[in-house]
Amino acid sequence: MDLAILNLIIILVKIVVVLAAIFLTILILTLAERRVSGFIQDRLGPNRVGPFGLLQPIADALKFFLKEDIIPSHVEKPLYILAPMLILVPALMTFAVIPFGDEIYRYFGGHLVGIRFQVADLNVGVLYILAIASLGVYGIVIGGWASNNKYSLMGGLRSSSQMISYEIPLGLSIISVVMLSGSLRLQDIVQDQAHLWNFIRQPLAFIIFLVSAFAETNRLPFDLPEAEQELVGGYHTEYSSMKFASFMLSEYANMITSSALIVTLFLGGWQVPFGILDGLNLPIIWEQIIQILSFVIKTGFMLFVFIWVRWTLPRFRFDQLMNLGWKSLLPLALLNIILTGLGLAIFS
Amino acid sequence: MIQMILFFIFAFLAVAGGVMVVSHRNPVYSALFLILTFFSLAGIYVLLLAHFIAIVHIAVYAGAIMVLFLFVIMLLNLKSEAQAKGAFKYMIYVAVPMAIILCLELGFIGFHQYQQATSKPNDTGTVESIGTALFSTYLLPFEITSVLLIVAMAGALFLSKKKLLVSKE
Question: Which of A5, A81, A86, A130 to mutate to test the interface with B (most CBs of B within 10 A)?
């Protein structure tokens, strides 16, 4: 077989596997959120459907498919239908550059191909993530505006101003990580953490990135755009059935993408701690499986942290939110860059 | 071959987006078509091996500037325009063939130029070369641009400040 066609098939297989893994994780997350919140609030979550409630996501999915999809008569129909898709696509696109394993070489039909466990190895990986993160604003703004409803419009505008305010500390905290690794490729950033993970070398950047990631995904404590007590439903008030399901899907997809990013940039990506893997000399395929498993476990832990914080902290008021973003996080991120630069200049 | 197909797809989307920006009545739809044009232009930048420019184009233009445009349109509640009455009823039968001929000519010339530009290997669009140039040859314009941005921000803050009322005691 031709080498080009072989590479194309490998890329298609990677895309299918990554998308399937994301959707499976979203399903598990819907159940995990309710069970973990029940655990934190000292009650059981849903445990009737299937053993330990494991078939609950299937019941939820069936409910969304079979519910009546109402399109109110006063909405702007083309934009109303487009908005849920506009949120889902950037959330999934960011996952294309996240590495979840090292590169291996195998023989296929006489050709030696290198299979990278990353859908697209861009040499501007970090910039791509920042660009796609700033595209996530559109779906919410368009959804809020197309609903022709004052609550939705206020929710949409609040959410978009929150998201664009917190993109700046997000980007600035990534810059200090890039200064340490010297490259914008995500695979290089993961390799750079072989000795010490970045959350020890850059604790301030880790905290700033964590807080900004919460704000970017509209999760509590930055939950104001969908605050049930204040805005009825925020930007997804007028949506029902499948479109509402895609808003929920995209919120969980954003959560998964943010967790995977935090793991890649600060928690060592797919690397196993303390160099355990170099000690035992396992065959290559086992090393790959353990590295992918390590990535999955770390991402799962970060998702648990997302859910944990949601059910622990109360919600910020909108002016407190904006003050935190512009007056606290932005100067702290700039200070961090200065300190990192000084450290690099002195110690190398 | 693939590059020619991709170039024509991106070019068609860019031109179609541009035409819809000026011809649609609702300003929100015009803004969205402009975003489509920006994405197509970023695709053409990638075909010209200027990766940094493509990504920064998306991040700055489509990600920040168009969001502010949409804010303004939604907050000012701009309505759709009514259609203007045409003077010459059969204008469309003249305009469309001429537009098609113009597009074909421009496309052909554009593709010829683009082939000439990419036939020699060229690495001036990568992040490393831009970074090196910014910090060595073009250091002074870079620093002065940062001062310009601060002046613009200070001007915006000053213009939007509410006047403090002085109470007469």
Answer: A130
With CB atoms and an 8 Å threshold, state whether B28 touches A160: no
Give the pLDDT confidence score for residue B86 in this predicted structure: 60
The model carries a pTM of 0.86
Residue B168 lies in a domain: no
Long-range Cβ pairs for the range A191-197 (8 Å, 24+): A193/A268, A193/A269, A193/A271, A194/A271, A197/A266, A197/A267, A197/A268, A197/A271, A197/A273
Where in the sequence is the domain holding B105, given as residue range(s)? 2-82+93-123
Residues B115 and B58 in one domain: yes
B49/B68 same-domain check:
yes
| Alpha-carbon gap: A90 to the closest alpha carbon of chain B (Å) | 12
A314-329: average pLDDT: 87
CATH number for the domain that contains residue B111: 1.20.120.1200
Report chain B's C-alpha Rg in angstroms: 22
| B55 → closest Cβ in A79, A131, A138 | A131
Is any Cβ of chain A less than 8 angstroms from the Cβ of B9?
no
Q: Which chain B residues touch A160 with a CB distance below 8 Å? A: 67, 71
Number of C-beta neighbours around residue A280 at 10 A: 9
Residues B53 and B32 in one domain: yes
**One domain, residues B60 and B101:** yes
| Lowest-pLDDT choice from A251-260, B9-18, B159-168 | B159-168
Which helix (H) or strand (E) segment holds residue A110: the answer is none
Chain B contact present for A123, CB below 8 A: yes
DSSP helix/strand/coil, A263: helix
> Which residues of chain B have a CB within 8 Å of the CB of A170?
none
Pair B35, B74 in one domain: yes
- CA nearest to A57, candidates A35, A80, A76: A35
B18 domain residue, yes or no: yes
Whether B46 has its CB under 8 Å from any CB of chain A: the answer is no
Q: Which of A127, A145, A160 sits opposite B28 (nearest CB)?
A: A145
